[in-house]
From TrEMBL:
Residues 200-214 have a biased composition (Basic and acidic residues). Keywords: Coiled coil, Nucleus, rRNA processing. This is rRNA-processing protein EFG1. Belongs to the EFG1 family. It comes from Ambispora leptoticha.
Length: 214
């Protein structure tokens, strides 16, 4: 009888991955497998568990990203409006050019470069993170926020200059998914240590607050 072809783990949904993990564990726990088949099933189980973690992390990261986007939607809207207004004002002044010295033009161009970085900071701030305002007087008193803000501005400035802003956004998203995966894995380990069974594989929940301050 021909051997049934196994579906690629990457093509499986979260629910199908969870079911196959449970089924594979039951087969391994039976204890009567030939050595070569046992190794094959153990490898399959590892691949299934890795793919489940990856898919759940991606799904949870997307949820966190949407939550944070909504949470800071208004403050980012107001900051973008403020930056855009100044960009338009200075651009108009520069184009008009009346009674402007070379020093004036250089100063305007320098300020415009800063504003373009600020604009992209607002638009492309790391996904799923607590937004650090450009103009909040409260946040500006926190040295940690000042440091983080400057680091992100520098990353965005460099990405603009090298024309790789989209790559930077993808990098931020990948970093978020990695951190979410680590939190999910840690929660799974703690769950096992506490004595809970993994009968509900794939339904493990993480407190939303765990991500808001990433």
């Amino acid at each position: 009888m021909p051997k049934e072809k196994q579906q690629s783990v990457g093509a499986l949904t979260i629910s199908r991955l969870s079911k196959q993990i449970r089924d594979t564990k039951r087969i391994l726990e039976h204890g009567s497998l030939p050595p070569n088949l046992k190794v094959e099933k153990e490898r399959r189980l590892k691949a299934l568990e890795d793919e489940l973690l990856k898919k759940r992390a991606k799904k949870r990261a997307s949820s966190v990203e949407n939550e944070m986007r909504q949470k800071y939607r208004m403050v980012k809207f107001l900051e973008e409006k403020k930056v855009t207004r100044e960009i338009n004002k200075l651009t108009k002044l520069k184009n008009k050019g009346t009674n402007l010295s070379e020093a004036d033009i250089a100063m305007i161009e320098g300020r415009l470069k800063q504003l373009y970085v600020d604009y992209n900071y607002i638009k492309h701030f790391p996904v799923g993170r607590k937004y650090i305002s450009l103009y909040s007087k409260i946040e500006s008193k926190d040295p940690n926020n000042d440091k983080k803000r400057q680091e992100i501005r520098e990353q965005i400035k460099e990405s603009i200059e090298s024309m790789r802003i989209n790559s930077l956004v993808d990098q931020y998203r990948t970093e978020l998914e990695k951190e979410v995966a680590e939190k999910l894995e840690k929660a799974k380990v703690n769950k096992k240590k506490s004595g809970n069974s993994d009968a509900n594989e794939g339904k493990l929940n993480i407190d939303r607050d765990d991500f808001f301050d990433i």
